[in-house]
Specification:
about 220 residues; alpha/beta; about 20% strand; globular
Length: about 220
C-alpha cells in the first residue's frame, strides 16, 4: 500500500458524554485513542492527532498539532492535519471510533488510484444512509481549498465536499468487508459507549477487559 498519513481529529467537546474527553474513554481496558493509533500505525507511514489540548497526547508516540482556525469544527481539524501530513493522502478519522478495521481503511486507500493528480480529492464512504467524512481519505492538496472555506466562514465538512471531487463509496461495496459495520461504530452518547463496552466484553475472554471509562489528565 502507498505511504499514507493517518489523522485523528480529537477536537470535540464530548457534550453528549457529559463533557468528557472521548479520546480517553476506555474500551476493553484501553483508551480509544490508543486503539485508534495502534490500528493506524500498522497501516500509515505517519500519524497525527489534531487537538485543542496537545499536552494530553504527547506521550502517545505520535505527532500532535492544533487547529489553525480554532473553534471552527471538524473541517478545521482536517485542515490542520493535512497541513502536517507528509504523504500525498491521508486517512482521517474521528477520535470516537474505537473499533476501526484495517481492511476497510486499506479498501478506501486503494481507491486513490495510480493517477493522483486526476484522482478524487476525497474518498468518502456512505454508511447507514449518510456520508462518513470523518472515516475518509483526503488528498493533502485539499488543505488549500479547505482554508478558503474556513476563511469564508464555511465550517462544515459538507460545505467543502460540495466543492470537491469526491468518490462516494456506496454501502453495498463496503458491506462485503467483514469489519465494515464495526469500523463505522462511534460513541457519541452514554448508550453507544455502553454498547461498545458490551461488545468488547463479548469478544474479550477476560471479563476484566472492559472497564469503566477513564479520563485523561486535564
Amino acid at each position: 500500500m502507498r505511504p499514507i498519513t493517518g489523522i485523528v481529529v480529537a477536537g470535540g467537546k464530548g457534550t453528549r458524554l457529559g463533557g468528557c474527553d472521548k479520546a480517553f474513554l476506555e474500551i476493553a481496558g484501553e483508551p480509544i485513542i490508543v486503539r485508534t493509533l495502534n490500528t493506524l500505525q500498522a497501516i500509515c507511514s505517519q500519524t497525527v492527532v489534531v487537538t485543542r489540548h496537545p499536552e494530553r497526547f504527547r506521550a502517545l508516540g505520535t505527532e500532535v498539532t492544533v487547529d489553525v482556525y480554532p473553534g471552527a469544527g471538524p473541517l478545521a481539524g482536517i485542515h490542520a492535519g493535512l497541513l502536517a501530513a507528509r504523504a500525498s493522502h491521508a486517512f482521517v478519522v474521528a477520535c470516537d471510533m474505537p473499533t476501526l478495521d484495517g481492511d476497510v481503511i486499506r479498501f478506501l486507500v486503494d481507491r486513490i488510484g495510480t493517477d493522483e493528480a486526476q484522482g478524487p480529492d476525497a474518498i468518502v464512504p456512505w454508511w447507514d444512509g449518510d456520508v462518513e467524512p470523518l472515516h475518509a481519505v483526503y488528498a493533502t492538496r485539499c488543505a488549500e481549498a479547505m482554508e478558503r472555506c474556513l476563511q469564508r466562514g464555511q465550517h462544515s465538512v459538507r460545505d467543502f465536499l460540495r466543492q470537491a471531487r469526491v468518490d462516494y463509496v456506496p454501502q453495498r461495496l463496503l458491506a462485503g468487508l467483514p469489519g465494515a459495520a464495526r469500523s463505522f461504530t462511534n460513541v457519541n452518547t452514554p448508550e453507544e459507549l455502553s454498547r461498545s463496552l458490551e461488545g468488547a466484553q463479548r469478544s474479550d475472554p477476560d471479563p476484566r477487559g472492559a472497564r469503566a471509562p477513564w479520563l485523561g489528565d486535564g
